[in-house]
Design brief:
This protein is α+β, with helices and mostly antiparallel strands and about 150 residues long. The chain has two domains: about 60 residues, no CATH class; about 70 residues, no CATH class. It is built from two helices and seven strands; from the N terminus they run ββαβαββββ.
């Protein structure tokens, strides 16, 4: 039995390679679960269609943890942030130039519920039952119940 685990650092290329998340083998019950997590991250990155690389290295049990967010933390944050940007773009499309533009911040009060590859945005106040289903790059607007 080996006395180390593996860690994979996910890097995206923008102006250069930038580390965005770590998948640490010490967070998983066994090597198989770790490999599944890396594979799931790889599949998500392929869907996102961003230049990326996965850098693996060995880590010991007592080695300091990475300051990077876990993949689950990073992807969850990125997904919600990107979904809010898509909602703003969706609402701004076709607006006359003199109308104020929506920003991603306009959707922070919405309740967000994940469902498969979608994020479902609903108004938390219940003022309207309109919902938005967002999955990069799509936005589907559901007008709510018709009477």
């Amino acid at each position: 039995m080996r006395n180390y685990k593996e860690m994979t650092v996910v890097q995206f290329r923008t102006d250069g390679w930038r580390a965005v998340a770590a998948i640490d083998g010490r967070d998983y019950p066994d090597d198989e679960a770790y490999e599944r997590a890396v594979q799931e991250a790889f599949e998500r990155v392929n869907i996102m269609e961003v230049p990326a690389q996965f850098v693996r290295r060995e880590v010991t049990a007592d080695e300091r943890r990475s300051p990077l967010p876990t993949w689950a933390e990073y992807f969850g944050t990125r997904t919600e942030a990107r979904a809010r940007e898509l909602l703003a773009e969706y609402h701004n499309a076709g607006l006359p130039a003199e109308f104020p533009r929506y920003t991603a911040d306009a959707f922070t009060a919405y309740q967000v519920t994940p469902y498969e590859d979608w994020l479902i945005f609903t108004v938390e106040s219940g003022f309207t039952n309109q919902t938005f289903l967002v999955s990069d790059p799509m936005v589907y607007e559901s007008p709510g119940w018709q009477s």
